[in-house]
Amino acid sequence: MRSYVNPLFYSMEHEAVLEALKQQIQPALDELNAEIVEITLKRASKKLILRLLVDKAGGINLDECALINKRIGHIIEENALIEDRHVVEVFSPGLDRVLRTEDDFKRAKGAEIEAWFSGPVEGEIYLEGKVEAAGAEDLILENKDARQFRIRYSIITKARLKI
Questions:
Q1: Closest Cα partner for 44 from 89, 87, 3?
Q2: Which of 6, 62, 78, 126 has the most C-beta neighbours closer than 10 Å?
Q3: CA distance 162 to 62
Q4: Does domain 102-161 have CATH number 2.40.50.90?
């Protein structure tokens, strides 16, 4: 019998598997005041690759990524979450991090970003500026001319910290 993930997960959809893994892993990250930004589980050749993008206020360094990787490995082994051969990869968002969620924009408050839109925002389809506020549905971006734009997350096609 070829195993993929613990039988507990066999009947779950892929997103549910990722959510279950995230729930098992997040408490270990909470101890470091870190959070999972993105999690993926993919088959590559004859093994599974669990990739986690993690971050915390002030950023995350290489030593912390290594520590998190080790902790996650122990959690997976102790709880038999992934029975197949697997690799755990932990990454930090890096300087040119893509902003996707409300929490991403909240963390970016006060930072310079660049953003592209699916439709015009006061006639603009691209803006650069400082994140002044980030709410549940939208953010306020102030450009270099001190003009403020209210932008709904739903129309942002791409946004990242400006380097």
A1: 87
A2: 6
A3: 21
A4: no
CA angle, 108 then 112 then 116, to 5°: 90
pLDDT digits (tens, 9 = 90+) for 55-89: 887 788 899 999 999 999 998 888 887 778 889 99
pLDDT at 91 over 70: yes
**Residue 131: which residues within 8 A CB-CB, separation 6 or more?**
105, 108, 109, 110, 111, 113, 139, 140, 141
The predicted model scores a pTM of 0.64
In degrees and rounded to multiples of 5, residue 57 shows phi and psi of -55, 130
* Homologous superfamily, domain 7-91: RimP-like superfamily, N-terminal (3.30.300.70)
In whole angstroms, give the CA distance from residue 2 to residue 26. Answer: 28
How many Å apart are CA 22 and CA 52, to the nearest integer? Answer: 9
Q: Which helix (H) or strand (E) holds 74?
A: helix 62-79
What is the tens place of the pLDDT at every residue in 97-120?
788 888 889 988 999 999 999 999
